[in-house]
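ok so I'm stuck.
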Amino acid sequence: MKFYSVILLFLLLSCSINERSIKAPIKEKSLNVLKKIKKDPSTQNSDFIEYLVKNNDTIYSISLTYNINYKEIISMNELNDSNLIYPGQVLLIPKNNKIIKKKRKDFAEKKVSVKWTSPIKGKIFYAYDPIKNVNGIGIFSDGDVYSIDVGKVVYSGDGLKAYGNMVILKHNDDFLSIYAKLASVYVKEGQLIQKKQLIGKTGFIIKNKTGLHFELRYKGEPVNPQKYLNF
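replied:
not stuck anymore, here's the structure
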């Protein structure tokens, strides 16, 4: 009996050690990043926001909220993978300062080298206007919404109030497309999407009017969708 008790105790200790070895390094890394930033005399704390990760957050939804490149969040927090976040984790988010605004100007002036199909047929009733912080276009329509190109679903949900039901597709290392104000979503996170694949249905974009809010991001920064899409 004593022998079996010793074996049982050994197994419990082993499980505890394994659990700590899996979970601890991730949390420890987040804390170390925070300490390193705060100790760095060349870095002002006012240049960063400490963001507490919530349920259903992704790197892409967070980057959308703060209008920054998702790669900056990954690099700043020394994440090995864009999915390596969890509720309760603290992430450092660089503020949308003059440097980021300068990058936006550079992206806006970049020559367009790609053309995609429109996600939906309809009438554009508001246009991209970075001065007024309008990061996409509004399209009046009542019907199905399609992907502009092949990609992977990196976000599907309604965690951002201003966007309602939303799908974000990652097409490559440079481009993301964003489909918002959807009444229904037919895809899920991690799913690979084909060009012109049905991804959702339009919802109310303004009072009594259905449509789609659509954005396109180049290296995390908003660009004018009308320069990239064939309507």
